[in-house]
Amino acid sequence: LAQQQQQQQQQEQEHQQQEALRVHDTSCRKLRYVPKHLGHVFARVDATPIASASIAQVHSAELRPEVLQWLGPWAHGREVVIKIQHQHVRRLISTDLRNMERIAKFLGPTLPFDLLPVVQEMKRVVPLECDFEREERLMSTIRARLAVSQTGICVPQAVQQLCGPNMIVMQRMKGQSLTSLLSGAAAGSQTARSAGVRCLLPVLRAYGQMMLVDGLFHADPHPGNMLLQDDGRVALLDWGQVKALSAEERRTLCHLYHSLAKKDVRGALKAAGSFGLDIGSHAEELKHLSLAAKGQQALKLLTIMFDTRYVPEGSSYSYKGNAIVEGAPLNKFPGDLYLICRAVFILRGLCNILGITDLSIVEMWGPVAASGLKQPASMSEARAAENAALTVSHC
Predict the structure, then answer these.
(1) What's the longest Cα–Cα distance across the chain?
(2) Which of 20, 33, 96, 343 has its CA 20 to 30 A from that of 304?
(3) Cα–Cα–Cα angle for 157, 161, 162, nearest 5°?
(4) Which tens digits make up the pLDDT trace of 74-118?
């Protein structure tokens, strides 16, 4: 019986490996054919993808003239892009997430804080990226909100009538990707660096608006998702990974940034504690530090977690012991903060690459946080309920 179970497990592992290799092998390849029914909609579909990632790949296409007439008001011409989901990707994601959970449980006793809540948050949100109808709803809603707030960010308009659970057809956005600008800056081009800064600054402002006012934000700000357009606006792409904050979470985040902007350690720690973030102190280890010094160290840790300003300890943690910053050990990290902190970490990395290490979103977002705290409770609750409904998957 034991041998049979071992053989069965081995066969399952071999099947998963073969499936993973097969999907990886086809994920960036040309389309072998264009289904006939798509030919009635598109005059052209480029076989070679213009971009490909773990869940989907994107192809340039051109709508037929008669389709434009059928669509009605559409101001973006015939050129579109098609985002197509990879085959069997849902099953592969499920397998990866189960394995991550097992690893987190196994490593738990050796790490400075429990990673399991983070992995459980990933298990909740990552599969949602496979629901393209959900992504289309979120993209359309945030597109309208950012247009009103005038952040300098634009979002592609989806052709709703042509979208489905595994495919999104949307407006073609053109411009220089932040990825290419970062490459140019790394090669010593000041022109590329200046353009990169012009691309990133509106994104930073938009994230303050999305997190602290709207309570619904794009959670994957990597440079390939940003295009600097000729008119100076920035196109923000790929809306599969979006997090909705409850009314209480949004208000608590406003308190946190408002307190950090005022360097109010007590207020910032109180707000962080409301999220379930536990920054403790061990008397025996830290008895040489005064209470004021401990407060400053806690403020430094919160800066690492929630600000783009460079702090040396934020890039040199060796996982020896349980304190990133001496005097402020991180005892507990809640899963609800994962996507918020992850977005901030990515944005800080982009600032560092562009050499704007002194740029602080805490300072930039301080007034936004103050405005967010003045939002009427009824309006905040209604917006949070709308956001929650938008992020639900019906697949």
Answers:
(1) 77
(2) 96
(3) 85
(4) 888 899 999 999 988 999 999 999 999 999 899 888 776 778 888
In DSSP terms, 170 is beta-bridged to 81, 158
Contact 239, 227 (CB under 8 A): no
The residues, ordered by sequence, that sit 6+ positions from 342 with a Cβ below 8 Å of its Cβ are 219
In whole angstroms, give the CA distance from residue 364 to residue 277.
23
Question: Which residue has 């920054």 as its token pair?
Answer: 279
pTM score of the predicted model: 0.85
Amino acid at 68: L
Instruction: List the one residue out of 198, 201, 237, 202 whose CA is nearest residue 220.
Output: 237
The model's pLDDT over 331-367, given as tens digits with 9 standing for 90+, comes to: 788 999 999 999 999 999 999 999 999 999 999 999 9
Cβ–Cβ under 8 Å, residues 218 and 210: yes
15-35 per-position pLDDT tens digit: 443 433 333 333 444 555 445
The identity of residue 63, as a single letter, is: L
What three-state secondary structure class fits 318?
coil
Alpha-carbon distance 55 to 94, whole Å? 12
Residue 331 three-state SS:
strand
| Side-chain half-sphere CA neighbours of 33 within 13 A | 3
CA distance 94 to 117: 17
- Residue of 131, 122, 146 lying closest to 211 (CA atoms): 146
